[in-house]
Structures are given as structure tokens and as C-alpha cells.
Amino acid sequence: MTDLKMALSDKLLALGDDELILAHRNAEWTGHAPILEEDIALANIAQDELGHAQLYYQLLESLTGQNPDQLVFFRDAKDYRNTVFCEMPKGDWAFTMLRQYLFDSYEVFYLRGLSESQYQPLADVAVKIIREEKFHVRHSGVWLERLAQSTPEAFTRLQNALNTLWPLTQQLFIPLDQEAKLIQVNYLPDLESIKQNYLANISHKLQSLNLSLPSSDTYPKNRSEHSPHLAEHLAEMQIVARHDPEAVVW
Fold it and tell me: What is the pLDDT of residues 47-102, one digit of tens each?
């Protein structure tokens, strides 16, 4: 496998893992959301994110032959490449909606650049995903405003969520070891320029809601670092597949 192909495979794995883990975190709200309509809405968003993960894993399979189901259900936590930002427990409703907004906004910025990739299969996937992410960011953005402008308790919960999530958000913009090679051949957009646009946009939004941005100096510096929450989550997510690895769906 060439260096370029290996670098692209690593990036696709990281992108897919973020989508997969966040999808499962959101799915934990099924049957527990604050209102029935939102129960359905967040379940649909979780399903969308799961579909996005599958698109990235399928591209990875075309490069390496790795089966997506094997990747998802038979890797240990140390081999996952999602961010700690995505693996944190779902928390309360303010935490979930804020995380979704921060991630959706990041995706919209990133996918705009990715849609111009010189690796056409990846550009095609980006165009497909961004259509759904525009609806996601609108949905989570409305909830952000609703929580920030309702009761003192809701505002406090939102600020507490921001205190935890804002530093972890920075990990989304840490390039992989070989990512510079992919940027050089225009397979990927430059993360640093996207980060600056993202921070300017999101900071303005959050401050307009009177939320205070905490320090973001301390956060995991690579995607090999995980919290204990990921192993706990995977143990539950993978239990059926690992119980009978040879089982087939008829």
C-alpha cells in the first residue's frame, strides 16, 4: 500500500469513527428525550450519522478490503480513532444539543472543503452528507437558543456543558500524522483554515447567547487517546456480535 493510500485510509477511519460513536451516543436518547417529537427527531439524526459512518467505511473498504462490520464490532477501544469529544457520555439534554451543534457546525465547514476533493469518491460522499448536515445544524442551533434563553437552570446546564465540551472541540482540528500529504494533493482541505473560520463563527454564536467561552488549552492531542468511557460504550455496543462472531442474517 502506498503512503498516500495509507494516509487516506487513516483519515477515512477517523471520520467514520467520529460519526459512528456520536450516532450511538445520540441513540441512547431513544425513548428518553424530553418530548415525543424530539425523541423521533434525534433518533433520525442518529440514523443519519450512522449512515455517514457507513459511507466513510465503505470508501475505506474499497481501498483496503476491510469489512465495515468487522471494523465496527471487533476492534478494541485502543484501535478506534474517534475524538474524545464524540465518545463522552450523552449527559443531559443541554450537553447533547450543544455537542451536536458544535459537531454539526464543524462538519458543515469541513464538508464544504471536502466536496472539492481531488479524490472524487470522497468529494461525492461529502456532497451527499452535507445536505443532511445543514438540517442537523439548524435543528441543534434552535435548541441552543431555546435553552440559553429559557430558564436560569437551562442556561446553567448549557454553560456547564460548554465548559466540558469547548476544550474537547479543539481535537476535531488536529491533523493526523500523514494528513499533510493528503492536503498537498488536494484530497483534503486544510484543517487550520477551517478551524479559524469555525472558531470565529461559533464564538460569535455562543457569545451572542451570553455564554462564556472557557479556556481551550487542555485537550487530547491525538486520536489514539481515549477516555474510559469509550471502552465501556464499545463493550455494550459490540456484545451481540462478539457473542457469536459467525452468526449471519437470513
Answer: 999 999 999 999 999 999 999 999 999 999 999 999 999 999 999 999 999 999 99
Separation between Cα atoms, residue 132 and residue 41, nearest integer Å: 13
The closest of 220, 216, 188 to 202, measured between CA atoms, is 216
* Residue 217 confidence (pLDDT): 79
C-alpha cell of residue 62: 474499497
Residue in 167, 170, 149, 171 with CA at minimum distance from that of residue 158: 149
CB 40 within 8 A of CB 99: no
Q: In the numeric block, which cell numbers belong to residue 158?
A: 448549557
The torsion angle over the Cα atoms of residues 79, 85, 90 and 96, rounded to 10 degrees, is -140
- All three cell numbers of 13, joined, read 477511519
Q: How far apart are CA 206 and CA 213, in angstroms?
A: 8
Residues 210, 214, 216, 219: is their CA dihedral positive or negative? negative
**What is the model's pLDDT at position 221?**
83
Q: Measuring CA to CA, which residue among 117, 132, 121, 129 is closest to residue 61?
A: 121
- 13-27, 134-148, 167-181, 218-232: the lowest-pLDDT one: 218-232
Q: Cα dist. 53→59, 81, 154, 211, 241 in Å?
A: 10, 13, 31, 31, 18
Can you tell me the distance from the alpha carbon of 74 to that of 79, in angstroms, rounded to the nearest whole number? 10
Would you give the distance in Å from CA 37 to the centre of its chain? 23
Q: What percent of the chain has pLDDT over 90?
A: 89
Q: Rounded distance, CA 47 to CA 135, Å?
A: 14
